[in-house]
């Protein structure tokens, strides 16, 4: 059985391979280079943990490929669902949304990608992992320890810097929330009605309203939205990496329900 050090190196390898595959896929879809993933560095830990769950938990049943496929689907789907939920709780943002896919669960997981993860579980357990572990066995344990330490330090630095930038992003979201709350107060006075659509559609429709009394408020809020949406650097990278990213905010949800009530 592989040591803790070897398993950590495997975790980093699969995190990198997952990042590479996803970045290539998103790059092809958007037709421009995209650094996919939550972190700045070339790593997506969710893929690393998914691969390690499959390797460590399914080895006892690897004589049964069909069972490996089924359990691979269950394990990776559970991991993806939990990751989506916990990241939304922590950062008030939904990073991906499968609502438009057939047989999805709350937009967090869907049948298509779950089946793909099941196939990848087969590939990792029977094909890829034996090759990678064979290579690692050729590396002395002391060298593996140094490699693991270097990888951990790089990961820690990347994680802390990404969290710091995300904190600034969250502060921008909160500023926008406050602007929305101010708008709600103004709307209570002027009471224009528009349908409950996606956030961007709401403001596109809102900007078409002719009531001069609320032009100043409209322009102020639209300017804040555009500033937030067009931020460069980390914010811009997140938009490219997670094109379906949605702000999950009680205040932003409140205004939709509020406007719906005003239409009655």
Automatic annotation (TrEMBL):
It comes from the Bacteria. The chain crosses the membrane at residues 6-26, 38-58, 64-87, 108-128, 134-157. Keywords: Membrane, Transmembrane, Transmembrane helix. InterPro entries: CmpB_TMEM229. This is Putative membrane protein. It comes from Dielma fastidiosa. The lineage of its organism: Bacteria, Bacillati, Bacillota, Erysipelotrichia, Erysipelotrichales.
């Amino acid at each position: 059985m592989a040591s803790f050090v070897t398993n950590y190196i495997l975790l980093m390898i699969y995190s990198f391979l997952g990042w590479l595959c996803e970045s290539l896929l998103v790059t092809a879809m958007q037709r421009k280079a995209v650094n996919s993933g939550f972190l700045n560095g070339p790593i997506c830990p969710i893929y690393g943990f998914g691969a390690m769950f499959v390797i460590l938990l399914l080895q006892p049943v690897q004589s049964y490929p069909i069972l490996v496929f089924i359990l691979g689907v269950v394990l990776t789907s559970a991991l993806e669902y939990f990751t989506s939920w916990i990241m939304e709780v922590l950062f008030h943002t939904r990073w991906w949304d499968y609502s438009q896919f057939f047989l999805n669960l709350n937009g967090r997981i869907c049948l298509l990608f779950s089946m793909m993860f099941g196939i990848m579980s087969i590939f990792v357990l029977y094909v890829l992992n034996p090759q990678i572990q064979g290579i690692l066995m050729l590396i002395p344990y002391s060298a593996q320890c140094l490699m693991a330490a270097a990888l951990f330090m790089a990961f820690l630095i990347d994680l802390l810097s990404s969290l710091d930038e995300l904190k600034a992003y969250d502060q921008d979201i909160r500023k926008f929330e406050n602007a929305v709350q101010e708008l709600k107060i103004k709307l209570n006075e002027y009471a224009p009605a528009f349908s409950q659509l996606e956030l961007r559609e709401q403001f596109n429709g809102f900007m078409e309203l002719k009531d001069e009394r609320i032009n100043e408020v409209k322009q102020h809020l639209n300017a804040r939205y555009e500033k937030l949406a067009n931020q460069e650097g980390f914010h811009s990278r997140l938009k490219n990496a997670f094109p379906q990213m949605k702000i999950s905010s009680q205040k932003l949800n409140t205004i939709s329900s509020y406007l719906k009530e005003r239409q009655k």
